[in-house]
What we know:
Number of helices: 9
CATH topology of the largest domain: Naphthalene 1,2-dioxygenase Alpha Subunit, Chain A, domain 1
Radius of gyration: 27 Å
Largest sheet: 8 strands, antiparallel
Order of helices and strands: HHEEHHEEEEEEEEEEEEHHEEEEEEEHHH
CATH class of the largest domain: Alpha Beta
Shape: globular
Strand content: 25-35%
CATH superfamily of the largest domain: Naphthalene 1,2-dioxygenase Alpha Subunit, Chain A, domain 1
Distance between the termini: 47 Å
Amino acid sequence: MFYSSILRQPAWTQAGCQPRENGTCSSGTRSTWSALLRPLRTLREHLMNDETKTDPWAGFARGWFMLRFSDELEAGQVVPLRRFDRELVLFRTASGEAKVLDAYCPHMGAHLGHGGKIVGEGIVCPFHAWKFDGTGKCIEIPYAKRIPPKAGLSCWPVRERNGMIFVWHDREKSEPDWEIPVLEEWEDPEFLPWRHAKLQIKTPPLAIAENLADAGHFIPVHNTHPVPGSFSNTYADHIGEQKIKAIAYPVHGGKDEFESKATYYGPAYQVTKMFGKGLGVIINAHTPIDAENVMLRFAVSMKATKGMTDELIEHFINNMRDGYLQDVQIWENKIYLDRPMLCDGDGPIGEFRRWYAQFYTPRNEAADAAE
């Protein structure tokens, strides 16, 4: 390539020398060569620009992210995780509290998620038995008389709500400024326990969340036909909401006239409430593993009302689950377009992206933009 060959100029051009025919250089007018090379240096700086200056979605968003469902983590269990392109350790203490710490021991670098053990309310490193409490502070070294004052691990804010374990991510290391709300359905004994699954896919988080504003995908992807004029979006602070009335023809057969309200609490945790022949709740949560991959966690529950058979409940749950998986096939194989060619009827994609951008923007700048 022309630009590539120019950017790899020989050393004499960088030193401000004039070339001889034999390839060596002699003294010349440095200012002349500097002037000639200045545009090339500018081009090189542009091509090597930091990704965060050119990609508005580079890095990882600020907010609460689901790590596991509560029934996936027993007391005393230790789980190694890679999330946000970092190694973490998730564990549940003897008293039942879920904790998340950076994974590598500050002593000699062992990964606490591989061989670490829970003793009481702390986790013990498998290498030299240094013990850390739930805040990450080193509280015991069995062979030492003195604990180094800076011995500790970064502790991540954790919340356990609605049968799910969440961790707070913020590049600025700020404390959470909003909370995961309690679901009344989770506390209703008539609702069935979560039936959940997980799936790792290669897609940007935006591709998943953008469905909130995508009015045009219901018919081709889900064979769901919205009632004209029923689709709406509202955005306020960290909450984005979609409402719709539609007639669905699910993948396992049947016909369902329903209303739904899908609510994103932050960038990555969505609760959808379905009102139709049965009352159901769908959880859609995605957490970045690294810059290219996310872990999807999906769950459904349904109210076991009088007259509903186990077979009918199973049918509704399967329809909700497999309808969601239709989206997954699209997400995993699509690309991101910074300027999609939109048309009327697509839904408020631009409004959604402006709302979503706050989670990638430093908190003070996001607040100024909201005003």
